[in-house]
Amino acid sequence: MKVVVVDGGGLMGVETALWVRDHGHEVALVQAPGGPHAATSDEVAEALRGCSVVVDLAHQPSAGIGTLSEDHGLVVDEAALVDSWARSTGALLRAGAAAGVLHHVCLSVVGVDRVGSEGVFRALRNREAMVRRSGIPYSILRATQTFDAAEDIATAATEDWIVWVPPAEVRPVSLTDVATLLAHTAVTRPLNGVREIAGPEQFRLDAFVRTALLTDAEYRQVRTDARSPFYGARLRPRDLLPGPDAFIARTTYRDWFAGRPAPDSTS
User: In whole angstroms, what is the distance from residue 237 CA to residue 204 CA?
Assistant: First the structure.
């Protein structure tokens, strides 16, 4: 079986592709539109030739979804974001339908069903709706924030050298654990529904970001503010927590933190 992984050029796509290959399937990795080495529509169509499964990892929350301002942090043009993601998602779904794809796997974010009317969550909710309406059998995997995402969250929340983070509860997860479940989902029957994955420990978002920034080179301070947006959305305390049926990964933050590469002291 041929599986095509479409991503934005990050580690998630690489790890997912490797896990798919470990399952014994042919896999191709294609960069979604918008990246520095993005595939053209013709290249995507060619990559999908003979493909049974598409794993769509494009369009995740990041500081790149809007404009970074020194005074206001991340400023998101919601209408433009929804339109941009809808166009690229629609093009991928049409290419998949034309190629006879039998399973479309979409990576989304825990909390879309609760925060879906604001910021990046508005675009994520619209993307999920497009996948459901496409007519292609699908699986939507919603993940909590990955351990690696803390620094990007801080970048998006920085105003005048201060990182303002809401005290929402989170259960961050290892990128490798998400990639492993994505690969398993890709090579099994479509869910035609949603599954969630979260980490084994619960923290407050501000504490998670503060811990990640505890390095000698970090000059910013992390402060807690319930009114501060998260990628353009205002959060209630439990908006980012998974439901009771979520798959709970095993990797703890302590284990991940201890195993990550040391910072380059020469840079």
Answer: 9
Q: State the Cα–Cα distance between residues 8 and 63, nearest whole angstrom.
A: 13
pLDDT digits (tens, 9 = 90+) for 213-263: 987 677 889 999 999 999 999 999 999 999 999 999 999 999 998 877 655
Global pTM value? 0.93
Cα 116 to the center of its chain, rounded Å = 15
Q: What is the pLDDT of residues 124-157, one digit of tens each?
A: 999 999 999 999 999 999 999 999 999 999 999 9
CATH number of 2-148+172-201+242-255: 3.40.50.720
Contact 94, 131 (CB under 8 A): no
Give the end-to-end CA distance of the chain in Å, rounded to a whole number: 43
- Name residue 141's beta-bridge partners: 107, 195
The string of DSSP codes covering 164-224 is EE---EE--B-HHHHHHHHHHHHTS---SSEEEEE-S--EEHHHHHHHHT-STT---EEEE
Residue spans of beta strands (DSSP E) within the chain: 2-7, 26-31, 53-56, 67-69, 73-75, 103-109, 138-143, 158-159, 162-165, 169-170, 194-198, 203-204, 221-224, 247-248
44's CB contacts (< 8 A; 6+ apart) are: 6, 30, 91, 92, 95
Q: Which residues are bridge partners to 6 per DSSP?
A: 30, 56
Beta strand pairing call for 2-7 and 194-198: unpaired
Residue ranges of the domains in the chain? 2-148+172-201+242-255
Helix axes 119-133, 78-99, angle to 10 degrees: 20
With contact defined as beta carbons under 8 Å apart, do 60 and 109 qualify? yes
3-state secondary structure of 126: helix
